[in-house]
Amino acid sequence: PLVLGIETSCDETGVALVRGRELLTDVTASSMDEHARYGGIVPEVASRAHLEAFLPTLDTALERADVDLAEVDAVAVTAGPGLVGSLTVGVAAAKALALSTGKPLYGINHVVGHAAVDELVHGPFPERFVSLVVSGGHTSLLLVDDIATGVRELGQTLDDAAGEAFDKVGRLLGLPYPGGPHVDRLAQQGEKDAIRFPRGLTGGKYAKDAAKYAYDFSFSGLKTAVARYLEGYEDRGEEVPAADVAAGFSESVADVLVTKSLDACARNDCDTLVVGGGFSANSRLRELAAERAAERGITVRIPPIRYCTDNGAMIAALGSAVVRSGAAPSSFDIPTDSAMPLETVRV
Ligand code: ATP
Ligand code: MG
Ligand code: FE
Q: What EC number(s) would the UniProt record show (predicted)?
């Protein structure tokens, strides 16, 4: 099927066309520059930007793929999770397009889309795999038997997302927003073992609940530990070893992400880990995942970074899988769900 995918869950307006598992085009407009001066995403600014960017983005996508709207077999749109004001713009646009062309509409789960997009890059998924979706808004582990119909949530973050923790530590270190890439670069100049920061949800009071939290994450305690460490230097009037702090912090985040993901693979008999979401750009995560997965004979699949950040291709990819599964289309009053559960691949 030829599927038009629309993504507007956060600050990126994405439109893409996918035929089967083949990506025809993927166009993204971002309002991040407008948010940067506020030091965070401003929902009203984001939804307004989607309104302005949608039609030009759609036109560009159709033009680049040399496709007429009438040729599209189905319209797929992110229904959640995300910012309600942003989701609403994409869903309204998708409904209008589906109604005017008489094509079926599919409301799609954004987080599952982050995993699904890898099929466009690395080909069909194995029968069962684990996916780690990690970004500024999400940190989730999924067990996938069928990307269209069989997704289970193994765990997720109980507080901050990994990217969010990096942005907060970036702020503590006086780096520009979003801090993630800056902290990553700084970390590469530091010594990863110079400072050992805590690994969230392991040891201490969590030791007795190890099984309960096996696949969950927590990064807010780690962020607080970094803040306390930096305060110590401030109190003593000493210069902060910023690169070592960044490296120790990055090591803690990468260590828990990789350890839990590979444990999930081992315990669920999977030899494939699919990583997605904008935090997949993190260099230490990539290194450590490659290193430890190789030791265990597990294949790590990570799409190029432009398909890891929010985009339309991920929604078209999952939409295409859902259409191929024979699932019934969504109703025209699909709700936007800011907290859509991961098991709900489509609404
Ligand atoms: P979502 O809606 O999926 O949560 P988002 O816009 O919050 O989307 P992405 O755009 O997918 O997140 O990813 C951006 C996040 O990843 C930001 O928090 C950013 O700081 C972080 N990030 C990006 N590159 C790196 C990196 N190299 N190292 C660490 N963090 C990074
Ligand atoms: Mg983003
Ligand atoms: Fe996302």
A: 2.3.1.234
